[in-house]
Amino acid sequence: MKKIAAKLFAKFIIWNNKKWIENPLQAQEKILKSLIKKGLNTKFGRDHDFESIKNYEGFKSRVPINDYEGLKPYIESIIAGEKDILWPGKPLYLAKTSGTISGVKYIPITKESMPTHINSARDAILNYIEQTGNVEFVTGKQIFIQGSPVLENLNGISLGRLSGIVAHFVPSYLQNNRMPSWETNCIEDWEDKVDSIVKETVEQNITVIGGIPSWVQMYFEKIIKKTDNSVGKQFPGFSLFIYGGVNFEPYENLFENLIGRKIDAIELFPASEGFIAYQDKIDSKGLLLLVDNGIYYEFIEAEKFSHPDSKRISLKDVQLGVNYLLILSSNAGLWSYNIGDTVSFVSNKPYRLVVTGRIKHFISAFGEHVIVKEVEAALKNAINSTSIEIREFTVAPQINPASGLPYHDWMIDFKAPPGNLEEFSKTLDSEMRKQNIYYDDLIKGKVLKSINISIVEDHGFENYMKKIGKLGGQNKVPRLSNDRKIANRLSLKE
Questions:
Q1: What's this model's pTM, rounded to 2 decimal places?
Q2: Category of 333 on φ-ψ map: left (φ > 0), alpha (ψ -120 to 50) or beta
Q3: Which of 134-148, 270-284, 359-373 has the highest mean pLDDT?
């Protein structure tokens, strides 16, 4: 009965979503009008003369691009207990997240925005069912490795991590299948938490697992250590992996070996600021942009972001293949907010994008402006058709080497290292040169020498994240840094 209900519900949702998928610009125009109307009588709306805004051009002229620092005075008023600041009334929640400049950030979630987080994740799974016909997993147990659902109270507003907040809204029809238990989910220490998840789930019929790949990997390795079985053998019904937050491609070889077989995987693009996109085609990496989800999107070419003549555009003017900084206004009370992510569109019928990185995560110590998408693509190409497995990696410049030319330093934790590290380094450098012409020019011009690979001790990234208090949850190791702060704290193999 549950399988039949899932198939019917999937058909209905996909049919219903076609309205905005086929009319994305109309959906976005409607969203903008609705947001402005709701924001009219807020402090932000009065400060920015929402009353006079008639269209997108008027909106651009009244509302500047904001980062967290720009909205911080308003958020501080919300934290102090004031109403009608960024959105009517008070937010239901404040999602606690880390900021590079601002330290801890508090992102509002309202009664209007909360359902969009839940429904989008639901729709991604229903879309998968409609596409593949696979409904076997709905009768098994489903693990979502997430942050603690324990919330603090801040002047009448609940405060916590997004994944912990979302845990309070698991639909009733999933409650009996959901794992781990509430008590285990509340464990703050990440290693203790994963150990408890293993104990609770090792003998269960697990069919779906979701989470950030690096933390799911830790769970898989503990399952294998406890059972001496591959994950796929221990969980024969396991058929779907759901992930978000980082690109899965660097982990594919490792996951296939840990599981013992290939399984389907779908990518989500959730953020504390809103649920932005999900993978709607199982055989394509592009993510369907959710244009009817309470969010109005704007874009700025990433390379021109810091230029005084940088231009903001709406969805109708985006071009395929251009790297854009993503700006959003939402029914959570965020207005032209720079979330820091960069994206590139791979389709406009419908609008599908790939996440290319973070605007603050790049290497340009010599003008090369290497971005996350490029290093991930180079690494994927370099390990294709090999048995190399990588747990985690990051890249940083070495500007002042003890001798010779500067170089890009790849800090890699190998689970299965290459037989010939020098040969692999050459291959990886060649792939990197194909990805970025400026980097290629610097190598040709003998400004830089070829990449250096520094082998990080086993689980060295986990140890680093633990030391800085960011092990688990939504925390991720940056793929790129323009300095050596992370690189200098990683322990290398002797």
A1: 0.82
A2: left
A3: 270-284
